[in-house]
Design brief:
This protein has 308 residues and is mainly alpha-helical. It contains 11 helices and no strands. It has one domain. It is 67% helix and 0% strand. The protein starts with a helix and ends in a 39-residue tail after the last helix.
Amino acid sequence: MATQTVLALLLTLVSAVAINWGYLIEHGAASTLPPLSGRRPLHSVRLLLGSRRWLHGFLLETSGFVLYVVALALAPLALVQSVAAGGIGVLALLVARVSRTPLQSRERIGVATAIAGLVLLAISLAGGTAEGHAGTWYAIGLWLAASVGAAAAAMTVGARPLPGGAGFGLAAGILFAAGDVATKEVVSGGNHLVLGPAIVGFYGAGTIVLQSGFQHGRALTTAGIATLATNAIPIVAAMTLFREPLPGGALGVIRVAAFASVVIGAVWLAPKRPSAPSGGPGRHVAPANERAPARHGPAAPHRKSPSR
């Protein structure tokens, strides 16, 4: 393997650690802020920038992103993303160790399945990964537009099957992935003047959506699904938009199995949808392991042991 590729993989690994550590810090800060909304981006940005703790996490995430961009300039997109996707394991370790929050059984299954997919992905790259070609403007534009629609659907329609911040995590991952696609086009010789604003827009929107998701669910749920989407979607883009070849024979089958494992892992990371509350439909109910409720409701005559 060329020295340039080895350097790219090392930079990607450091990048994954920095980005996911930043996510964990941002989650702790965003969960204490007033509600954030993509419909009021300036208000949300002011709230975030006013939190010194959140700025610390964002600086760490940004440092990781800079390393990621350098890695993209040195190696094929699919290879870089396959290593960056290992961030889900880093995030799980940080959640369990740093925040001293034990992983739920669904989360352990989701992380294990996703990591198994990443191992399969690494195996599929054993035959080497060739550089592709710059994407056409039509295809890039169509991909970016579809990403906007898919992210909006994840936050609205996806709120039912993906509760507890999972829908927001998926939307953020789609937006970040679109930014990655635009970034790869730029470092491959694309027009900076046209795609530069798009890169800023997608990463900025993804950041606000991710912080909103942090207010709805656990760090591993929201950031974990965002990480999986951010890394799995660009690999598909690498094979379609940039025509980085899919390996033939058994390695091609293994790569398809890897994608399936990553998707299944993301589904298991999403919490189960709670049963309909008596207070009526359409109201979000936080899982028991998130914030404590402000009140327990009327008519609580005596306390029993908290076995829930």
